[in-house]
Amino acid sequence: MSAAVFLAPAGELDLLTPGARYTLVGPEARHAATVRRLRAGEEIELVDGVGVRVRGAVAEVVGGSDAAVVLEVDTVVREPEPAPAIVLVQALAKGSRDELAIEAGTEVGLDGVIPWQSERSVSHWRGDKATKGRARWQQIVAAAAKQSRRARVPEVAELVVGAAVVARAGRAVADGGAVLVLHESATEAIADVRIGADAPEVLLVVGPEGGLSDAEVAALETAGAQPVRLGPHVLRTSTAGPVAVAVLAQRLGRWGAASD
Asked: In what residue span(s) does the Ribosomal RNA small subunit methyltransferase E PUA-like domain sit (predicted)?
């Protein structure tokens, strides 16, 4: 059975070495102590969300409001940042379909998320809702990263509204990256598109339930983006992004080895 994974604050695992002890506190410790009911001697893993993975045995568990889990470190692994980064530009969608997309996308390997209020987005983030929406998306990807045993948690960027996505796409292309727009009328398959060996990132642009407008597609193409299709069928906005991420992850060799 795989060891349970818990998330530690970024930076706190940096100096750990085998034989050291680390005390996990806060909500993750309370979850470990009261929900998972960890016991001394159990093997667990700690990840910091930015690439450090620590494995060891639980030395002590303290429950209650001041819960703490003391870990005796056995191994420390520093996983390199993947390149190119796979970033999902997900249009806001109704019925939590956008949340399903980023959750599944995280499980299959995306590295970043950009929420986008597109022309046909029925859902809108205005004022405080943008801050709360971004925070909720960050919680979703963090939970999905833990579930899929990832050492890195994708970062959710600030909301991009309307045509501002074109500027973001232009910057990606100018930096040597690729921007792929999922569109049902595209002629080139995503499995065949060329991605430069030195590309720092690949942006995957996914529209809402009503799809992208012709004007949005044209503007993105002008910025250097390339429309691509996934296959012969039209997918929901909740599934298109994760499927595209999976195809790219396979192409980039990320699925060549199984996790321990």
From this structure: 26-61
